[in-house]
Amino acid sequence: MQNEISIFGFEIRALQKMGWPLWLLAIFAFVMLFTVLRRVSSRSQTIETTFRQTFCLTDDEMMESIIEYYMGKHDCCRQDAMRQLLKEVDPDLVRA
């Protein structure tokens, strides 16, 4: 009887039989997925932070009403509404 080590249900022996090209492909796919997810979360935090810094003198109720107005005006989500408002205030604040 041999000791079998499994990682999330996959046996190490089965992974070893796949060979090194598949390992490299799996590592590359993981790195790409991680990079994409990091950019998406970073982008939304950046818009939120930039919006809060730009409108720091505006109280929270007024900010929320402005965001809701732009959500209705442009028929978009919260992040896109903040992005649209920042583009109108200063196009240099928003890159894309």
Q: What's the helix and strand layout?
A:
Layout: E1 6-7, E2 10-11, H1 12-18, H2 20-54, H3 60-74, H4 78-89
Antiparallel strand pairs: 1-2
Concise overview:
The protein has helices at residues 12-18, 20-54, 60-74, 78-89, and strands at residues 6-7, 10-11. The chain has four helices and two strands, in the order ββαααα.
Kindly describe this structure:
This protein has a two-stranded antiparallel sheet with strand order 1-2. It has one domain. Helix 2 packs across helix 4 and helix 3 crosses helix 4. With 96 residues, it is mostly helical. Strand 1 and strand 2 form a beta hairpin. Helices cover 72% and strands 4% of the residues. It is rod-shaped.
